[in-house]
Amino acid sequence: MTNYTLEKKDGFTVLGIGVELKSDYTDFVGINKEKNDFWSAIAQDGRLDALKAIATNDYIFSVNEAVNNKMMHYAGVMAESSIQEVSRIIEFPTGEYLVVKGEAKTSAELGNTLTGLAFGQALPEAKDFAYVGGPNTVVEMGQRDGLVFGEMWIPVIRK
């Protein structure tokens, strides 16, 4: 049984730089490679630093969203201003969210672990709520004791 909570969250907006994921949605190895390649590229070319510079807090969002029948992945921040590199304004609805917390050695490992726990265990075991789509995100919240910590937020509805 996965440890998770259900939390009510006010709607919020994330400004994101994105990439279309081309791997089949069941190809977790391919998806993870595409995501890791994307994060490496935006870290190297300065786009991630540009996003962080406009952020209103220290959270870094790793967002997954279906857009026009395409599987999209974004690096994002909460911000009150924008930059040229932003490719999407991602609206998260007010409502209940499945929240899975964790920590890992790297940001990529945190994302993979939380996604696996949320979609591989918590949602399949859920009897009172369901994910019906919309953006979901791993939120990297900081570092402590040499580990990256954060949460996965998935909007859900009561069954």
Structure description:
With 159 residues, the protein is of the alpha+beta class. The chain has three helices and nine strands; from the N terminus they run ββααββββαβββ. Strands 1, 2, 3, 4, 5, 6, 7, 8 and 9 form a nine-stranded antiparallel sheet that branches. Strand 8 and strand 9 form a beta hairpin. The radius of gyration is 15 Å and the shape is globular. It starts with a strand and ends with a strand. The mean pLDDT is 94.
Could you provide a short overview of the structure?
With 159 residues, the protein is of the alpha+beta class. The protein has helices spanning 28-44, 47-54, 107-125, and strands spanning 5-9, 12-21, 60-67, 70-77, 88-92, 95-104, 129-130, 136-144, 147-158.
What labels would you give this structure?
159 residues, alpha+beta, 9 strands, globular
Layout of strands and helices, then pairs:
Elements: E1 5-9, E2 12-21, H1 28-44, H2 47-54, E3 60-67, E4 70-77, E5 88-92, E6 95-104, H3 107-125, E7 129-130, E8 136-144, E9 147-158
Antiparallel strand pairs: 1-6, 2-4, 2-5, 3-4, 3-8, 6-9, 7-9, 8-9
User: What class, by secondary structure content?
Assistant: alpha+beta
Main sheet characteristics: 9 strands, antiparallel
Percent in strands:
35-45%
Uncertain stretches of 5 or more adjacent residues:
none
- Return Rg in Å: 15 Å
Number of helices: 3
Nearest-integer average pLDDT: 94
**What is the N-to-C order of secondary-structure elements (H for helix, E for strand)?**
EEHHEEEEHEEE
> Which outline best applies?
globular
Number of strands: 9
Percent of residues in helices comes to 25-40%
Distance between the termini: 19 Å
